[in-house]
Amino acid sequence: MTTIAHISDLHFGRDLQPVTEGLLASLDAIQPELIIISGDLTQRAKTVEYEAGQDFLRRLQQPRFIIPGNHDLAAWNVLERFAYPWRKWKQYVAADLEPMMQTDAFIAVGVNTARRMGWYLDWSRGRINRRQIQYVQNMLQQAPEDCLRLAVAHHPFWLPDSSLSRHLIGRREEALQGFRAAGVDLILGGHVHLAYVQPLEGMLVSHAGTTISNRLIPGQPNSFNVIRGDRKVLELEQMEWRGEGFEPITKQFFQRTEGGWQPHVDF
Ligand SMILES: [Fe+2]
Ligand SMILES: [Fe+2]
Questions:
Q1: Any idea which ligand is nearest the CA of 43?
Q2: 130, 217, 238, 251 - which has most CB atoms within 10 Å?
Q3: What's the rounded mean pLDDT across residues 167-192?
Q4: Angle separating helix axes 130-141 and 172-181, nearest 10 degrees
């Protein structure tokens, strides 16, 4: 059995110090094998925010796996946004924008779905391209059958009706088809600052809320998720900030059948 912590949308610049300390204490107690961070490390991609993000990453005791989000691109500095959009990310966070990590228990592949611009006014929207879909497929192909397969992208492949105005990721259908063919078990994301788990075409889409920032939407406290299990059975636990620390709120169980992942109620 593996244990993976999934945190997201830290938004340094809008981070809450007590919540950050609570998160680190919680992670120390959980001792995950890996900490996945699904984008929006900063609020406005400012140097001071990247420095704060780097300090935080250095404090993590476990291996980490991090991809960028739309907020990690400069919003107002046009030259930076278009000429060298990921220079700060590479300087302060990681050389690789699309990491891959494999152990005996799992394989995780990340894609960068933030875009410098698009054919629409809202440039916070994200997109996956064909090279990235192929990249996920290529990486997963080499994994042993019993290896849990995770694809990590900042933007959502599924949204509850109440959040559809946030837009699903571009080229979603083609990506889902490719992911399914590659045997993806879990698609992890953030962006909407909303925590949910949704079975989708035999896979599980799981989003973490904003874990430590004050960019909260009504009714959604700071949160993160803990994934426990293997390629047969998974437990997805949601941890919520309750003023003095993170506490477990819900646990959902899933089992993998011939048709893919389904809710399991007999635990
Ligand atoms: Fe965000
Ligand atoms: Fe975002």
A1: 1
A2: 238
A3: 97
A4: 10
CA of 42 to the centre of ligand 2 (A): 10
- The confidence score (pLDDT) of residue 166 equals 85
Distance CA 187, CA 95 (A): 23
Ligand nearest to the CA of 8: 1
CATH class entry, domain 2-263 = alpha beta
Q: What is the pLDDT of residues 114-158, one digit of tens each?
A: 987 766 667 788 999 999 999 999 999 989 999 999 999 999 999
Q: Separation of 136 CA from ligand 1 center, angstroms? A: 23
Calculate how far, in angstroms, residue 120's C-alpha sits from the geometric centre of ligand 1: 19
CA of 142 to the centre of ligand 2 (A): 31
> Which pLDDT score, from 0 to 100, does residue 148 have?
98
Instruction: Give the separation between CA 115 and CA 123, rounded to whole angstroms.
Output: 7
Sheet containing 2-7: which strands, arranged edge to edge?
64-67, 34-38, 2-7, 223-229, 233-241, 246-257, 260-263
CA–centroid distance, residue 109 to ligand 2 (Å): 19
Measure the CA–CA gap between 94 and 91, rounded to whole angstroms: 7
CA distance 75 to 81: 7
Predicted pLDDT at 40: 98
pLDDT at 76 over 80: no
